[in-house]
Amino acid sequence: MEFGLSEEQTLLQDSVKRFLAEQYPLDKVREFATNDDDGAIVRNGLAAMGITALMIDEDHGGVGLGLLDAALIAEALGHGTAPMPFVASVVMVPQALMLGGSSEQQDRWLPKLAAGEITAGAAISELTGARGDTGVTATNGRLSGRAMFVLDFEADIYLVADTNGALHIVDADAQGLSGKGFNTVDCTRKLGELSFDNVPAEALSCTAQQVATVLNSGRVILAADSLGAAQNMLDQSVAYALQREQFNRVIASFQAVKHMCAEMAAELEPCRAMIWYAGHTADAESNANNNSNNGEAQQYALHTKAHLSEVCQFVARTATEVHGGMGFTDLVGLHYWFKRIGANRQLLGSPERLRDDAARALGMVN
To answer: Please, what is the Cα angle at 74 between 68 and 76, to 5 degrees?
Structure first.
């Protein structure tokens, strides 16, 4: 029995990391954060590598891989703080279309998503805790209301959840739809708000369990993204400690700094296996046509994101402390990974919310 990645999976992840290191260094990240770069290099390059087709079946021009493979790519994207529309455009929306889309909807949207011709966003954050003045209602095939923290904003189509938990596909050019981007703590990705004024929408025939499958897939991807960002911060800390000198010695020789780096590595390494297993269980349930989400897949998705949110926050804080005052400067750029981890912690549910959901799913809380 294999308890690690296949050679193909390792090569896939390494290829994405190498591409980002060569084509999207820190200077490019800064340009994207200040709106001087639109991230087209990343989008086009990864589309050419087939990443946009990752989870779409072969009948619709995709590669037909699973959530575990997508999590490996997400880890590489987090490692490079890449602005690639991924969690919604590559994972959640294609999965929703394959689970609940009609043949006509699948034939219309999936080949375009696979080819990277269009991108997709997801307005489903209200499913994990809506504000009192937000929410989208559906009446006779039309949507009204407001959705906050839309993932992969500025897309061509959007996956929208209504207040009853049903999913819909909305064209970005639909009459009555308007949106505005958010200035969030994370400048490396696009988040925004959508307003619906009697907007025509295409309903998907997703059951409540399938909606939960889509939501939990997004959570695993965000956890993997945080893992990649935290690993990069750890790598930077070790490299910095090996070259930064105080009292005519590199600070890596100081016991306190050694302990900080060792503790970050010890906390982070088990998280990698946790993400692998969360992806594996989701793929196993999917292959068995079991989307009940009452088994391991749901529990591991919830606990994985909750645990990674806290571990990666610890790594982000400790890595900044290793850098001392330099850790707060834009010269080092550590804050891009720090903020990305902070945003991932809250998106699609905070650790507290996710653990509460896990307890309710097991019947431990009424």
So the answer is: 110
> At residue 177, what is the residue type?
L
The upper half-sphere exposure of residue 201, i.e. CA atoms within 13 Å in the direction of its Cβ, equals 29
Domain covering 7-88+103-115 assigned CATH 1.10.540.10 in the classification: yes
For residue 2, the model assigns a pLDDT of 62
DSSP code string of 234-273 = HHHHHHHHHH-EETTEEGGGSHHHHHHHHHHHHHHHHHHH
Q: Report the distance separating Cα 154 and Cα 169, nearest Å.
A: 15
Architecture of domain 120-203: Beta Barrel (2.40)
Please report which residue ranges of the chain form alpha helices under DSSP H: 7-23, 26-33, 40-48, 67-79, 93-100, 103-115, 208-243, 255-287, 296-323, 334-346, 351-361
- Give the C-alpha separation, 251 to 107, whole Å: 58
- Closest to 77 (Cα-Cα) out of 20, 25, 118, 122: 20
Query: What is the rounded average pLDDT for all residues in the chain?
Result: 93
Cβ pair 207, 193 in contact under 8 A: no
- Residue 289 — very low, low, confident or very high, per pLDDT cuts 50/70/90? low
Q: Residue written as tokens 């009940």?
A: 292
Give Cα separations from 168 to 125, 176, 177, 349 (angstroms). 14, 15, 14, 21
Q: What are the domain boundaries of the chain?
A: 7-88+103-115, 120-203, 208-361
φ/ψ (deg, to 5) at 285: -65, -40
Task: State how far the alpha carbon of 329 is from the alpha carbons of 32, 79, 326, in Å.
Answer: 17, 19, 5
Distance CA 170, CA 143 (A): 9
Taking only the tens place, the pLDDT of each residue in 84-135 is 999 999 999 999 999 999 999 999 999 999 999 999 999 998 888 777 777 8
User: Is the model's pLDDT at 3 over the cut of 90?
Assistant: no
Nearest C-alpha neighbor of 96 from the set 135, 68, 124, 61: 124
Q: How far apart are CA 312 and CA 333, in angstroms?
A: 17
Q: Which CATH superfamily is domain 208-361 in?
A: Butyryl-CoA Dehydrogenase, subunit A, domain 3 (1.20.140.10)
